[in-house]
Amino acid sequence: MISMIAVLSWPVVVFWLFASRPPAAAVTAAIVGAYLLLPRNFSIELPAVPSLDKDSIPALAAVLAAATLARPMPHKALAPGMVLPGLWPRSRMLRILLVMMLAGAVATILTNGDTLRYGPIILPALRPYDAASFLGITLFTLLPFLLARKYLAHPVAQRTLLIGLVVAGLLYSLPALYEVRFSPQLSRDIYGYFPHDWRQHLRAGGFRPVVFLHHGLWLAIFFCGSLLASLALWRSSSGKDRMRWLVASSWLFMTLVLSKGVGALGIGLLLGAIIVFLPVRLQVIGASALAATLLVFPMLRGADMVPTDTALILAEGVDPDRAASLRYRFDNEDILLDKANDRPVFGWGGWGRNRVFDSEGEDLSVTDGYWVIVIGTQGWVGYLAQFGLLLLPMIFLGMRWKQLALTPETAGLTLALTANMIDLIPNATLTPVTWLLAGALAGRLELGRITDTVGQLGPAEPGHRSAYTRQTRRHPAQTSALREG
């Protein structure tokens, strides 16, 4: 009952946010707040409609609230209220990727009309009737991306997003630290369920916190992103504010350590050092290089060009148990990729059809990394469309950092998103917050060069045309078309 009330009352919160806050703050609070606070054990199931749950209901409510309530702010706060026109991107590349993702979802259904039998295990065929549901899932997934592209493109709005991530991380650290001490029990105590396997949250003689998320690893990577956002705000501030962000960074780092997510901690240390020691241009270029590497990682992995043997040797020197776990992960990736290669274009679809079974029906596979899940279920079309939307904006921002005159806020978001994307190699930690970060960066690329802090736009260069998005020269008086209202 409490879960149902929490999820169904969230649209009221969303409409209140859009009625009382700038659009950038409203979008940030609506999506991030729902991700952190709402339970996953309640959903509304309707025929031919995707599940309406903690991910889809807030996004749908935000779209409706933005369409009816979002208004430009007073003149002194015009910059945070600046929005890009329309919900559909103007970028040709983004449009192609969105169409690929939507069309690929339908094609996956249409190319998997066969029933799979593995001994006593029977996996059902996908019917054309399922296409509507699969297409709806894809659309719901993309809503945070589209909202962020529209409302979080401007650097001042992106600073709002960074602040939102830090404030959310600081507030969420309190229940997380409670669970570190007393065990992960808040989800069971409040919502009546535990979201995962309890044994996986016993670590280092203590507990790995979960709070209301899917798993402790999801919580750790969120704290990693909050830490990077805080460091970015520290780099871009001065005076007392600089000290406040430093204190916040220290607290978030301590919370990340106590969360016992070794991977997230390592990512945070690496990318945090980039923020602390490198200038903005190298931060963006570094994130761009990592994004390009991540985009081609499955190709390299499939071609056996990833040094897995070296990784196993290094892991053996640190902890034999970790090395054994890593070897098991690599073996699973190999057999899942072999299965995916049987239907490489559009994949095997859902219902576990991408998994590997023996002749007696025993499931031989463990699906951990999000990239291998996407390739197996949606094929290379689905992978390139989805990861292209997440990574290509960062790549092009790195290529065009000079023309766009990028700010520390954008650099901080690129590294926060990079942290999450790195974590998608071993884990499936793709969340609405991930799409929110990616959409903000896609919007920043579409926005072009900003010549004035109150929101006037200008072309990246006279006569310059980007390979990513078409730029046109615009007189300052015409920029009001990019403001809402």
Q: Please summarize the sheet with the most strands.
A: 2 strands, antiparallel
Share of helix among residues? 55-70%
SS field, number of helical segments = 18
Beta-strand content bin: under 5%
- Give the CA-CA distance, first to last residue: 40 Å
Low-confidence stretches: 73-81, 452-485
Sheet with the most strands: spatial strand order: 1-2
3D structure, described in words:
The protein has 485 residues and is mostly helical. The protein has a domain at 155-277. The protein has 18 helices and 6 strands. The protein has helices at 2-20, 23-37, 56-69, 78-81, 92-110, 128-151, 155-182, 186-191, 216-235, 239-258, 262-277, 280-302, 308-318, 320-340, 370-399, 401-404, 408-423, 432-447, and strands at 44-46, 49-52, 116-118, 121-123, 202-203, 206-207. The strands form 3 sheets. A two-stranded antiparallel sheet has the order 1-2. Strands 3-4 form a two-stranded antiparallel sheet. Helix 2 (23-37) packs across helix 6 (128-151), helix 12 packs antiparallel against helix 15 (370-399) and helix 12 packs parallel to helix 17. The two termini are 40 Å apart.
Short description:
This protein has 485 residues and is mostly helical. The protein has helices spanning 2-20, 23-37, 56-69, 78-81, 92-110, 128-151, 155-182, 186-191, 216-235, 239-258, 262-277, 280-302, 308-318, 320-340, 370-399, 401-404, 408-423, 432-447, and strands spanning 44-46, 49-52, 116-118, 121-123, 202-203, 206-207.
